[in-house]
Write a structure and sequence with these properties.
Length: 474
Amino acid sequence: MFRNISFLIFFVFNLSVNAQKVDLLYFTDAHQIFPVDDVDGGRGGVARLKTIVDEVRTVNPNTLVIHGGDLCGGVLFGGMYRGEPMIEAFNEIPVDICNFGQHEFDFGAQHTIQLLSKSKSQWFSSNLKNRDGGVFGNLPAFLVKKIGGLRIGFIGLTDAMNTSIHDDLVVQENLFVSVSKLQPEMGNVDFLVLITQTDLETNRKLLEQFPEIDLILTEEQFEHESNIFYKGSVPIVATAGNMSSVAKLSLEKNKKPFVEIIPLTSDVTSEKYMRDMELYYKKDMELQLSEKIGRLEVPLRFKDGITGESLAGNLIADAFREWHSSNVGIINGGGIRADVPVGDFTLKSVRSLLPFGNRICQILIKGKVLKQFLKENAADKNGQLLQVSGISYKYSPADNEIIVERDGKELDDEELLTVSLNNYSLGKLTGEFEVLVDELNPKAIEDFEVLKAYCKKLKLVKPVLEGRIVLLGE
């Protein structure tokens, strides 16, 4: 009798405590449904995530599962399946709240809207707008969740939309303007939480301008590392890339958030149903990508193209130029996304290099406009540096001068050139030019198909560095 009463008192006390406590489970950058195999035992995967979610919800039903953004595009899996398996998995977990990353728009805003129609999660955006000024997709601009005796407000911010496909159906509003407009509309909350897809410095500036913020959940800062930064006593939580970890954040009234990082390693048991889903997509992907294209004689390193001429950049720009028989081929270094080792060069290699599925267009442009485009991006260290074929260029950051050569001679400002480039780069090009083949033209096939056709013809793939890009003073 006494023991039963003791258990009842403990049970009621535990319910009372949990009624005042809310757990947030936060992860981000969910490009691939199964674990990434670049470490022993792999990292990430929806089956491990499901196990953690179930365990936490069993202990505390007052739990919200939050995805910070980026569930399609970005990597080979995302390029092939365009986010649909992730929506399927999120519905099963289930994920409660989703913010947008820029990669949700890699295949256009209409595709994003189709994904939303299949999702059971609550999507929202505080700074992505329709052309008429309303919230993108007619979604909520903010969320207020009343749970566990707490009133929690959420603001969702997406930055760097210029790094995805230019699409007039979605407009990025200034992050600071959005917060200043929405915060008064939320009313009093126990916790104000920002879910952001932006860099660490911007998050710190948000905290400076809006001291009412209690917590920021942001995008990964490092692929293999989770980080908890503090500005004062306010945490900025950045879990590792490709949902390699989950942050558990415990919220109690009148207390600071308590943060715990849970790595999604092989130490976490995979939930069976979700593991079967992972295995299905992994097998399907391997079957699709097994086709041999040729043999690669030199290793390709994607990061080389961020800061200078790269073997992968030369190979891809050559392929683009040949496809439309253009004078020039270009691709931004950040559009190349994987390392490929020496050996069999397969369809997997091709699609890993170019996972976005951009289409190869052709334009007619004067030399002076092309020079300006090259110069605008020559000093960039975040992926906009242009890899080229058919021309070479030297750039001096000291005086912001560029010299472009073609066929051993300096390019004349009035010379007319045909240029092959993807629709992403085309969307960033300013100045006067004529579009000869736009992305809707049947000749504008996907980038990986262009590279595949080129390498099949080569059979032996062996790009070389030729001094196509020279950055003076580095």
